[in-house]
Structure formats: structure tokens, C-alpha cells
Amino acid sequence: MHEMSLVEGIRAIVEDQSHTHAFTRVTRLRLEIGRFAGVEKQALEFAWDEVMRGCVAEGAKLEIIVLPGQAMCFDCARMIEINDRFDPCPLCGGGKLLPQGGNEMRIKDMEVL
Amino acid sequence: MCAVCGCHDVPTFDAKPAMLPFANVLAQPAKPLFQNDKHNYHYGKGAAEVSVPGMSQARLIEVETAILSKNDALAAGNRRVLTALRVLALNLVSSPGSGKTTLLCRTIEALGDAPLAVIEGDQQTSNDADRIRATGAKAIQINTGKGCHLDAQMVGHAMDDLRPRPNSYLFIENVGNLVCPAGFDLGEDAKVAILSVTEGEDKPLKYPDIFTAAKLAILTKIDLAPHCDADLDAYDANLRRVNPKIDILRLSSRTGEGMAGWLDWLKTHLAAKA
Ligand SMILES: Nc1nc2c(ncn2[C@@H]2O[C@H](COP(=O)(O)OP(=O)(O)OP(=O)(O)O)[C@@H](O)[C@H]2O)c(=O)[nH]1
Ligand SMILES: [Mg+2]
Ligand SMILES: [Zn+2]
Ligand SMILES: [Zn+2]
């Protein structure tokens, strides 16, 4: 995923919220990122400082909550939880897995002044 | 005629950010976002910063909003229009040079007078739209500037100008990139991943997201398979490993081998929209 675009998206949402909720500064922001969302934490943090400069979230602390990866196993037809995209099915050892959850990219909440 | 400025050339969408890097991405739909300057759309920034009275105490705001929610909402709008018009919209994704435009040109020739339109996405140049227009088809070029993918807003504006006909095909050639086009819904019916046999059998494993998001994978340039020791079954196996439900077709735009299967796929899926 393109972390720079994602942080641009976060910034747009934060700026919207600053109008509706009347705040001038974000001190902390929590993201929920699915294990399969393909988001690199380091790249996100790098883009964060760059993109947030000059907006209400400049200097805000970024916290990332990793959500589990879920997949449908096409061998045993059950929903399973896996850590890595290419892990085998923990129930039957099958390798044909279609990710179902784990692509989430959400702003959970933020602490504002 | 260009719906924006009344000129007779097909406009170029210039999404080059005016001030901020990547400002075009996910900009707010409700406000005017771009200025029309003759044939170019300049994607810019939305509202200016508004100062609000400061609050003395920190408070927690529950946001619970998807980061790409603005793009997703715009994509849903595009999809409503396309559904109402019974247009089959396909988002063609691949790495640069795998053969998207060549396949589109051959497809347009093979479809004869079936109504269709094309949206071309590239960082720079109108080369691909020019190639499409040379076949007689309607095409709009979107230049994304630094942007490495099309987003739903760009496609929505291009649709406004293209005005796809009812029961037609809309082909959207995305920027050559196997990474972020996977995450940006444009409102299409399906992503079609093009993979040429010179790229290596392990590409689906290296870039799984795009192949997981695709409904169909087209293994192309099969005329070259003997020259580069390509193992076509290994391509299939790796595609199925990352997406057990994916449809796979093999073809060569150069020799025409396998084109019939692709045309059948298109006709079946267009009929399903009716
Ligand atoms: N041998 C052979 N060459 C092909 C085939 N399809 C495309 N090519 C060649 O591959 C090169 C790239 O083709 P394009 O159609 O421009 O590829 P593209 O995916 O549109 O490229 P970008 O838009 O720049 O990402 C050209 O030289 C084509 O002639 C094919 O089926 N066989
Ligand atoms: Mg092209
Ligand atoms: Zn299993
Ligand atoms: Zn991108």
C-alpha cells in the first residue's frame, strides 16, 4: 500500500473532524490496521511527519493497533486466523487461503485539545 | 465537445498536485477541488484552515472511520451510475509494460461496433489515449503527476465527460503499478490483472494484494513463453495460491491466440449487467 496516500487520507479526515468537533490540536491518534493491509509501520511513520506538518495533527503521537488476519480455507472450508499471508491453514494444513478480514485501515480515535 | 470548457479536444486530466504532494488523493467531494485551465484539470487542496477557539482540556473523539472512506464513497457513487446504465466497467491493473494498452487496442478492434469507452491513467503523456483514439474509440487520458494510482474522484470526472452509453464497456487502464491500485476502489465491476510471461512466475506471491483483489488474471504475451522458459502452469498455481477464486485466461495480443476466450468473458459479464 502507498503509505503517503494513506496519511493524506488521514489528514483529510482529521481536518474534517477539526471543523465538526472544534479542536485545534491532535495529541494522539490511534489507527487500526489489519495484518494483511500491507501497511509498513516505518513507512507510515515517515510519511506521517512529512504530511502532517502544518496541520492540526502536526506532532501528534501515532499508535497502531494491529488487527488479526482472517482467511477462508478452500481445503477445509473453515474460517481461520493466521499471522502471515502465506501461513498454511492451522486446522488442515491447506495452502489455498482467501483473506476475509485483515485488510482494515481505520482511524479508531484521537485525543484532541 | 468538452463538457467543461466547450472546446473540441478531449481534455487531459492533470492531477498534478498544485501545492501539496498527493493533495489530489481523497480530496473532499463536496467542494470545488480543481480549477479548469483550458484543457487541464488541476487537482488542488480543498478548504483552508479554519481557526477555532482552543479547548483547555484534552478529550477523546471516537472516529471509527476507514482511511479510504472518501474514496470508497466516491467509488460507490460511480458504481451507482454504472449500474443504472448497465455499463461493464473493468479496472485493468498490471506492472508497467505488461501489455494493457496493446490488449485494449486488439480488444476494441475485435469488439467491432460494440459501444465502449476508455479511461487511460499514466503519470505523464497522452500516448496511451492517443493509441486508443487511433482505433476510433473514445478515450480520456488522466495524468496523475506524482500519483501512482487512479482514484475514484478522477474516474468520476472522466465519466462525466465520457458519458458512457447504456449497455456498453468502460475500460479503465490504471497506472502501471502492482501495489496501491489494489486498495483504491474506482467503482468498477472487476479488477482485471494483466501479467505477462516475461515478468516471472513468482509475481503473484510478491504482490499478492493486487491478485487477491482481481476477479480475472490474464496471462499475456504467451507467444514469448518459449523464448523465456516461462512455466505457464506455475503462473496459474501461484495465482490460485493467493486467490483460489480467480479466473485465469492465457492469450497473446500479438498473435491473437486466446483472444476468443477473453471476448467470451467480456460478453458474458456484460450480459450479466443487463
Ligand atoms: N510479443 C508480445 N509483445 C506484446 C504483447 N502485448 C504487448 N506487447 C508489447 O509489450 C510492450 C508494452 O505494451 P503496452 O501495451 O504499451 O503495455 P502497457 O501495460 O500498456 O504499458 P504502460 O501503460 O506503460 O504500463 C510493447 O512493446 C508491446 O508491443 C504480446 O502479446 N506479445
Ligand atoms: Mg498502457
Ligand atoms: Zn483448512
Ligand atoms: Zn499509489
What does this structure look like?
The complex is a heterodimer of chains A (113) and B (274). Chain A has one domain (2-112): hypothetical protein PF0899 fold. Chain A is built from two helices and six strands; from the N terminus they run H-E-H-E-E-E-E-E. Chain A has helices at 3-20, 41-52; strands at residues 26-34, 61-67, 69-73, 79-82, 97-101, 105-112. In chain A, the strands form two sheets. In chain A, strands 2-1-6 form a three-stranded mixed β-sheet, with helices on one face. Chain A has a three-stranded antiparallel β-sheet with strand order 4-3-5, with no helix packed on it. In chain A, helix 1 crosses helix 2. The longest helix of chain A has 18 residues, at 3-20. Chain A is elongated, with a radius of gyration of 17 Å. Chain A starts with a helix and ends with a strand. Chain B has 274 residues and is α/β, with parallel strands linked by helices. Chain B has a single domain, classed as Rossmann fold. Chain B has an eight-stranded parallel β-sheet with strand order 1-7-6-8-5-9-10-11, sandwiched between helices. In chain B, strands 2-3 form a two-stranded antiparallel ribbon. In chain B, helix 1 (69-84) runs parallel beside helix 4 (152-162). The longest helix of chain B has 16 residues, at 69-84. The radius of gyration of chain B is 20 Å and the shape is globular. The two termini of chain B are 29 Å apart. Mean pLDDT of chain B is 84; it is low at 1-55. The chains are: A alpha+beta (113), B alpha/beta (274). At the A-B interface, helix 1, strand 5 and strand 6 of A face strand 4, helix 1, helix 6 and helix 7 of B. Strand 6 of chain A pairs antiparallel with strand 4 of chain B. Magnesium ion (MG) is lined by residues 100-101, 128, 173 of chain B.
